[in-house]
Amino acid sequence: MDQHIKKVYVPMTETAFFILLCLRKPNHGYGIVQMVEKMTDGAVRLTPGTMYGSLSKMEKDNIIRFIREEDKRKIYQITDLGLEVLYLERKRIERLYKIAQEEM
Asked: pLDDT by residue (tens digit) across 32-43?
């Protein structure tokens, strides 16, 4: 993996984490917003500005890719590189959780 990509995405923002998690299946921006709100019981609400800025950056970094347009909505999906980054972040979070469990 490109060290630049690793440095930029690990550790990743909560927004990036949820976007990648939601794009394991093809989805569009508004669909991601709805999924995140549902999976966090409304605790996390992605704003359109943050969401679309992140999607654009992630697409440039080849973390996600544009698949098609549907009803004027761009559909994206995570790439293999994106899956790799998501996996690294998950491992990092698991490590933090394990340490916290041992120390509390």
From this structure: 999 999 999 999
Helix ranges (DSSP H) in 1-104: 3-9, 14-22, 29-39, 48-60, 80-103
Residue 44 to residue 37: CA distance in whole angstroms: 6
Candidates 58, 80, 76; CA nearest to 66 is 76
Is residue 7 helix, strand or coil? helix
Alpha carbons 30 and 18: distance in angstroms, whole number: 13
Cα–Cα distance, 32 to 38 (Å, whole number): 10
* CA pair distance 34, 42, nearest whole angstrom: 9
C-alpha–C-alpha distance, residues 21 and 86, integer Å:
7
